[in-house]
Write a structure and sequence with these properties.
Elements (H helix, E strand, L loop, with lengths): L1 E11 L5 E6 L2 E3 L3 E5 L6 H9 L6 E6 L2 E2 L5 H8 E4 L11 H12 L6 H11 L4 H4 L8 H12 L6 E5 L7 H18 L2 E5 L3 H6 L2 E4 L12 E4 L1
Parallel strand pairs: 4-9, 4-10, 7-8, 8-9
Antiparallel strand pairs: 1-2, 1-3, 1-5, 5-6, 10-11
Length: 227
């Protein structure tokens, strides 16, 4: 059963300029998805729609059968959806554990021992205790991305959205990050959705949705292919 479903979803900025049109996608728990397409095809806009930051101007998005427009948007974003950004968006004056703990407090979810849980999450993304207590600016790009993933997992969301999570990483580190996403989906039953330009990322996931730019076509030619 799909945890996220798009029904004839479209989005336009001013009522005339279409960015997305007639999207019918389904996302299940236990799988990793890639959303690909050229610049301007609307990949980041789609991610904003899925995260609840933006509402579609046409159609609807269903989360576990309920229209996202009709549920508490704050609760949806802070409890059910975790987001990983390309630029990490971590607080540089804090260490890795503190960044994850801060996210737990912001979510409002009751966690008895936040420090213990944060350390467990960092271990899950292959960061040991030494790295967990280092300041963010002393970590490599790949290590910072791992912290960002742990932070997104801090309130145990069903869905993990990642915007170009490997865009600043070398190929080896990219593979390691994608392995983490695969483990989260296949072993912990998360729904992982990754926006990426990388053909290597697209080749490593369970299914791919490809967006065609509406600037070149009057109708959307979005397609899905299973790996």
């Amino acid at each position: 059963m799909s945890i996220l479903k798009l029904e004839n979803v479209g989005y336009s900025y001013d009522g005339r300029t279409k960015v997305l049109d007639n999207l019918n996608y389904e996302f299940e728990k236990g799988k990793v998805y890639a959303i690909v397409g050229r610049s301007g095809a609307g990949k980041t806009t789609l991610l904003s729609l899925l995260s609840g930051l933006t509402s579609p101007t046409k159609g609807k998005i269903l989360f576990d059968g309920s229209d996202v427009k009709k549920i508490d948007r704050y609760e949806y974003r802070s409890r059910y959806v975790g987001v990983v950004f390309q630029q990490f968006n971590l607080l540089p004056h804090l260490n890795a554990v503190e960044n994850v703990e801060l996210s737990m407090r912001a979510s409002g979810k009751k966690i008895a021992d936040k420090r213990k849980r944060a350390t467990e999450l960092l271990d899950k993304v292959d960061l040991d205790e030494f790295l967990a207590t280092r300041r963010i600016l002393k970590l490599s790009g790949g290590e910072q991305q791992r912290v960002a993933i742990a932070r997104a997992l801090s309130y145990d969301p069903d869905i993990l959205l990642a915007d170009e999570p490997t865009g600043n990483l070398d190929l080896t580190t990219q593979e390691e990050v994608m392995d983490i996403f695969a483990r989260l989906a296949h072993e912990e039953n998360k729904c992982v959705i990754v926006v990426s330009h990388s053909p290597e990322v697209a080749a490593s996931v369970d299914a791919v949705y490809e967006l065609a730019s509406l600037r070149k076509s009057k109708t959307s030619r979005s397609t899905r292919r299973d790996i």
